[in-house]
Design goal:
- By secondary structure, the chain is α+β, with helices and mostly antiparallel strands.
- Helices cover about 45% and strands about 15% of the residues.
- It has 8 helices and 8 strands, in the order ααβαβααβααββββαβ.
- It has an 8-stranded mixed beta sheet, with helices on both faces.
- α1 (about 5-20) packs across α2 (about 30-70) and α6 packs across α7.
- The longest helix is centred in the first third of the chain and has 43 residues, at about 30-70.
- It is elongated and about 100 Å long.
Amino acid sequence: MQRIIPPIIVLILATLGALDIQIPGLKYSDSQLISAMLALIAIDAFVDRVDSSRAVERELGKIHQRLTVSDSSGIRFAQRSEQEKIGDIIGSARKTLWIAGPSNDGIVQRLDEIKDRLQHGVQVRILMVDPTDELIEWYGRHAVGPTYRLSDPAGRTRAKTRLEDTRDRLIELKDAVGGSFEMRVLERIMWFGFIIIDAGERDQRMDVQVYMYKKSADTAPILRLNSSSDARWWQIFMEQYGLYWAEARDVLE
């Protein structure tokens, strides 16, 4: 009876045969050689698939972990440079667009996008600080950044002029045809800035910028809130926005 040789041994023998090396007492047929080669190819393919499967499993595990953490809190942290472009955020509004910030520097550059939302029937609210001498001096004690240099009287004067210009340009949105427009100014320091999209709707969203003491707004953290996954924080910041709005003075009357 012909001796049965394991596939791995057959492969070795095949190599030896190719080199015309014969081992006394061992015989192997062509069919054994072919079977051995096919078996090794199958084993190699199986090992590759197992490795790939394990790699996919590891990646799925990482994704699941991230989703689990994300679902546990609706708050996502970012800096201004990591945030979506303001124009894209504004353009996503379908029902309401509420904006609040001390200076609204970035917003005043997006008048065309806001007009477009008004023309599509979106309700727009804009809130900013009232550029009084006292308030600008208070900001000078707390805020830093390249936009306004508030450390000296001349810088505060320039800042006041710029804020007044921003206020007047935003007021002009009242002439846009379409949805309702409201604008108010607040005679208080605003420690938070807001962009609230489609409040009360299923896909509502809120971006909150937290202004830090002696820190530039460019590095201040932005919190992206999800009302469904973290209703408590959503309510806290919505109430803060509501207080700002309630205590502000209407400039369109």
